[in-house]
């Protein structure tokens, strides 16, 4: 990945923007989009848009949700300890002992998630599943007044993990689900801007996917696309214990190409075109089947207005909904290439009515 693209990805990933609080990441995304897009804007819901060839046809929407899972401060006790509720779907087992970054009105506040030390837990307590309501956040406050001088009820927080390059093209960060999808949507739009497309292309960084695909519903209604491609992450089966999931998910590995999803949520002609373009361009890809509406923005887009021809590209992802998700930069770049070249192959006469 080119150094400037990697720098943008790092900047985007290190921004605090859990579901419902996406504006900081949307601003980073919009700033980058202005370098090539014909028009950019943010709607009242917080969705961020970048348009390329806006007067073209057909209208194609690219959607990656920019929110991440996080925490929201729900209570401050008399001693200055903070309690939080989940923004999105957490496995509470990963939370004890983690550092957090809280976005307060005056800036970022650091803290740690506390729990009774293991030495003091009886045997029965050690076996119990950790519950979020039994954990607290310690910011080093002396009392409630001290804590409230920095933190307010409703402030969002994320685990304190940044972007890191590992080995062999693998990178780690919290929130690749699905800020990497918002990155790919913008990268695909950037690439297609140089391809003189017939279509109008709208890249969208959608909000609040983690709590019900909410931003995709509103942004798709506003754009009224004929074609939509959602970009999200997909589970790999290339790690210990995940090999047993192959019977259900199909095989998927880091570095072997983006996943092209097939099933009821996916328009068959659009699926075939994605595969044909990948084959013709020599872009590696993997295929996974999904037997119902997916839990992604593709589900909301497909059911917009009178229906949209919808596709879903997934970036292979290890350790989803943890603070140390992994993706491969080759899969990211190949996903953007595949989407851009597919768009370039579409004009107003292209039909996506299933045969």
Could you give the topology of this structure?
Elements: H1 3-13, H2 23-33, E1 39-42, E2 48-52, E3 59-65, E4 70-76, E5 82-87, E6 99-104, E7 107-114, H3 123-127, E8 136-138, H4 144-148, E9 156-159, E10 164-165, E11 170-173, H5 176-193, E12 200-206, H6 214-223, E13 227-235, H7 246-249, E14 259-262, H8 268-281, E15 286-289, H9 297-302, E16 309-317, E17 325-328, H10 329-344
Parallel strand pairs: 3-12, 3-13, 13-16, 14-15
Antiparallel strand pairs: 1-2, 2-12, 4-5, 4-9, 6-7, 6-9, 7-8, 10-11, 11-17, 14-16
Strand order of the largest sheet: 1-2-12-3-13-16-14-15
The portion of residues forming beta strands comes to: 25-35%
Number of helices: 10
Largest sheet: 8 strands, mixed
Could you name the ranges where pLDDT drops below 50 across 5 or more consecutive residues?
none
* Residue-averaged pLDDT: 95
**Gap between N and C termini:** 39 Å
Question: How would the global form be characterised?
Answer: globular
Kindly describe this structure.
With 355 residues, this protein is α+β, with helices and mostly antiparallel strands. The protein is built from ten helices and 17 strands. Helix 1 (3-13) packs antiparallel against helix 2. It starts with a helix and ends in an 11-residue tail after the last helix. The mean pLDDT is 95.
